[in-house]
Amino acid sequence: MSFHSKLPRVGTTIFTVMSQMAKDFQAINLSQGFPGFGADPHLLELVAKYTQDGFNQYAPMAGIPELRDVLAVKTQRCYGYLPDPDEEVSIVSGATEAIFCAITAVAQPGDEVILLEPAYDSYEPAVLLAGASPIHVSLKPGDFSIDWEQVRHAVNFRTKAIVINTPHNPSGYVWTEEDLKHLSALVRDRDIYVISDEVYEHIAFDGRSHLSLAGQEELRGKSFVCGSFGKTFHVTGWKIGFCIAPKELMREFRKVHQFVTFSTVTPIQYALAEYLQNPSHYESVSDFYEKKRDFFCDGLKHTGLDYEPAQGSFFQMAYFGHLSNISDRELAKRMTQELKVACIPVSAFYHDHQDPKYIRFCFAKEENELADALDKLQNLSKIL
């Protein structure tokens, strides 16, 4: 028998590879994007409460009404728009599922979907599995802002969607009002949808505000806003996220979702519905992570790496091209094996694995772990 793969170029993700390497060489894992600390004990108590109280059977396909209601209110509080919790809000098993379902709902064979690179590695496989073609547009070197002239050149009659991500992984770039104006002009009077990955919505620094597409009157009519409770509340292993979209789009989204996971873990939904009633639980996240970013960047000053402090997310990129011409993958390997610090080579975020000489660190760790990693990174020159 011969087997024809739908994803012939896809192997094990770099995140799994680097985390396994970190484990094998007993290195500090600043590669994969998961927090190195626990969640609020109160949230954990709520999960235990609802588990023990018997909320353990299937949740409704779209999510429990209580969580959809409080998420709609939170959206209005944060972005000035109250979505219909019955027809415009769905709870899903992680933002990756939300992105997959949104792309699958709109993209068909013959369509094109624009991806802005470097990009999270789940976008392209979702486009390919839908039978559509990914069209890659590189972000500007240095600050990784959007080259809107290139984006406009990529648009044609086959363009069905564009996937955006703010705050951005891996660069930490946060979209501006000007970016939103360009995006609005791009999709205006065209049948182009927007899949907006906003999993780091509550992690923006230096007084910046996250500009959700849910708060943009012109854009939200064509947009799927995908978010993550796991990223916000330090519980990535729960794999629980959401999607907000106009009812016509949400109807198609749910058709896909019901045959991917159908529903999402029930007691956690009830716990989050109660936990979200206190806005301080998510409004304090930016300050929490900004202190970690500042601590990490202060330490990077002594490593020889170049960097611009991340504008958002819990990732910090660093440039090493002035130090060596080795590949970012080779550097990541040497750092893990010899310095005992694991990172992600940014070439993994490009479809053609181009190497801009950047590596990405996750600073969502305890301060003592970050300090230990920074001490080790001061020996970087010894492995170049």
Automatic annotation (TrEMBL):
InterPro entries: Aminotransferase_I/II_large (IPR004839), Kynurenine-oxoglutarate_AT (IPR051326), PyrdxlP-dep_Trfase (IPR015424), PyrdxlP-dep_Trfase_major (IPR015421), PyrdxlP-dep_Trfase_small (IPR015422). GO terms for cellular component: cytoplasm. Keywords: Aminotransferase, Pyridoxal phosphate, Transferase. One of its GO terms (molecular function) is pyridoxal phosphate binding. The keyword Ribonucleoprotein does not apply. It comes from the Bacteria. Belongs to the class-I pyridoxal-phosphate-dependent aminotransferase family. This is Aminotransferase class I/II-fold pyridoxal phosphate-dependent enzyme.
